[in-house]
Write a sequence for this structure.
C-alpha cells in the first residue's frame, strides 16, 4: 500500500543516482578518449572536462517529482523516474548551486541568471522538454 502522505526521502533516489552517475562517467571517459571525462553542460552547451567544477544534475528536482508522484508510485519507482537518463545531466557547479530545487523556468526569470550564467535558452528548453518526456515515459512504464 502506498502512503501518499509519506515524507520525502532520498535513500532510494541516491542509490540509483550513484549508479546513473557511474554509467555517465564511464561514457564520458570514452568520449574524452584521453583519460578525462568529456561532458556538455545541459544548460550552457559548454564543454566540461574531468577535474572542472561541474555537478551531476537532476533537470527536474527529485523533491518535486516525489511530491508529484508519491500518491501513485513507491519510493523505489520514484527513484527510477527521478534518475531516468533524460532527467540526469551535467551542469556547472555555479548553476547547480544557484538553481537548488527551483524549476529551471522559474530560476531563469530571476535577476540576470540567463546572462550571468551564459544560459543557452534554446538548449535549456530542449533539455527540459526531453526530461519531461523521459519522466512521462518512465511513469507510464511503471504504471503498466
Amino acid at each position: 500500500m502506498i502512503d501518499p502522505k509519506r515524507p520525502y526521502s532520498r535513500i532510494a533516489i541516491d542509490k540509483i543516482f550513484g549508479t546513473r552517475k557511474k554509467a555517465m562517467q564511464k561514457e564520458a571517459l570514452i568520449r574524452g578518449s584521453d583519460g578525462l571525462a568529456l561532458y556538455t553542460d545541459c544548460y550552457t552547451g559548454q564543454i566540461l572536462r574531468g577535474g572542472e567544477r561541474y555537478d551531476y544534475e537532476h533537470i527536474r528536482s527529485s523533491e518535486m517529482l516525489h511530491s508529484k508522484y508519491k500518491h501513485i508510485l513507491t519510493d523505489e519507482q520514484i527513484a527510477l523516474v527521478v534518475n531516468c537518463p533524460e532527467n540526469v545531466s551535467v551542469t556547472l557547479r555555479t548553476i547547480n548551486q544557484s538553481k537548488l530545487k527551483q524549476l529551471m523556468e522559474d530560476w531563469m526569470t530571476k535577476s540576470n541568471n540567463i546572462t550571468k550564467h551564459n544560459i543557452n535558452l534554446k538548449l535549456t528548453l530542449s533539455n527540459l522538454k526531453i526530461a519531461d518526456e523521459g519522466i512521462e515515459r518512465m511513469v507510464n512504464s511503471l504504471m503498466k
User: Anything to note?
Assistant: The helical segments are 11-32, 62-69, 75-82, 93-99, 104-109, 113-116, 121-143. The radius of gyration is 16 Å. Residues 57 and 89 are 5 Å apart (CA to CA). The chain is about 55% helix and 10% strand.
